[in-house]
Amino acid sequence: AQRVTQPEKLLSVFKGAPVELKCNYSYSGSPELFWYVQYSRQRLQLLLRHISRESIKGFTADLNKGETSFHLKKPFAQEEDSAMYYCALSSNFNKFYFGSGTKLNVKP
Amino acid sequence: EPEVTQTPSHQVTQMGQEVILRCVPISNHLYFYWYRQILGQKVEFLVSFYNNEISEKSEIFDDQFSVERPDGSNFTLKIRSTKLEDSAMYFCASRVEGNTGELFFGEGSRLTVL
Q1: What is the mean pLDDT of residues A84-101?
Q2: CA distances (Å), B29 to each of A71, A94, B2, in order?
Q3: What is the rounded average pLDDT of the residues A32-45?
Q4: Is B95 in the A-facing interface, judged by CB distances under 8 Å?
Q5: Facing B103 at nearest CB: one of A4, A32, A46
Q6: Which of A48-52, B12-16, B107-111 shows the lowest per-residue confidence on average (mean pLDDT)?
Q7: Quick one: which of A58, A102, A107, A57 has its CA closest to A83?
Q8: Are B93 and B101 in contact (CB under 8 A)?
Q9: Is the pLDDT at A53 greater than 80, yes or no?
Q10: Residue A63 near residue A73 (C-beta atoms within 8 A)
Q11: Adjacent-strand bridge partners of B94
């Protein structure tokens, strides 16, 4: 069965510290992986997708097919990174599976 | 910048009542979705819609649910006879043709069933 697991409900770090938000998935085929973010009082929006292999707002995510993981990383967290982060996967774009989300709190 | 808009932002209804949630997707988008999020839980897929028909639906999307694109701009989700467990935030999303996979979400409609 398809599943996206984000083991941490809440992650608190200090400004300037590295951050890693974990995402593991189970899927029988070759899915595409995404990170979506929801800032306070804003709508859910795409942060990045693995296929584009780009860095957005200093965040990167590497797809590790062996470990079935797609962890989101940033070397130096900023206060404005505080938000809810959702990992998601899809194979055909008709259906996206989301994780339960990790709330990132960056303390000053 | 074009956005997906949803109405109402919050609706309170009695159990057993019908509810219609409305969405206006971005105008050049062709794929439409409804998701829901029960408080504290994950964002769950309900249904996807393309070319005036359902592409895929989840097991949650039973006979009590239906979707419609009545006039070429609105995309509605109807719940025929609401249950307490239908209380959730309902998100509409849309995307363009092609392989970007980027979903554009509305702000959500919070449904409270009493």
Answers
A1: 92
A2: 30, 14, 11
A3: 93
A4: yes
A5: A46
A6: A48-52
A7: A102
A8: no
A9: no
A10: no
A11: B32, B104
